[in-house]
Amino acid sequence: MDEKLRAAYDVYKDKLQKLLVDVSNTKKILNQIAIDMGERPEFEDVEVEHIGTTIVEVKPGMFYNRPLAGSVREYMEMVEQARGRQGVDVNEIFEALRRGGYSDLKTKVDEEKVRLSLLKNTTTFALVGKDHFGLREWYGKKDKTKVKKKPLPKPKRKAEKTKDGDKSDQVQKPETENPKQ
Description:
Blueprint lengths: L1 H35 L31 H16 L4 E2 H10 L8 H13 L4 E5 L2 E4 L21 E5 L5 E5 L10
Antiparallel strand pairs: 1-3, 2-3, 4-5
């Protein structure tokens, strides 16, 4: 029974979020019309209010028996269409996978496994904030410049007095195991 209530809650939460997106878009249109008429825009709060974990409809079984990276990529592409390119919280990803039927995701340990998998897959995913991931392609290619190796250190120089009393720099010779006698 608890799962049915959760599913209903998620459906209506998603519907509310979609309505909030529509409200935001309508306010932007009205502001633009006001500007075109030479008037001052009426609405200052035109940003979308995000109320929940997702505004993307995740169908049961959508991620069942599918690879993790492919499932997360598909979800992120759906989020991109709904919200634009922005990082997605690992908790939101976890909940979407769970609702979509990806294996048996239930505990915080499972959530941590998902997070670590995303961190390891740097060719597909980018960590863009504290526990927020995006697709690597959204942020450009990873910088693969090689770090230059430091040159070997020069031998130490030891200042010695010459017969004339001047100090001159001479290379300090390494001691050998069998010194000559």
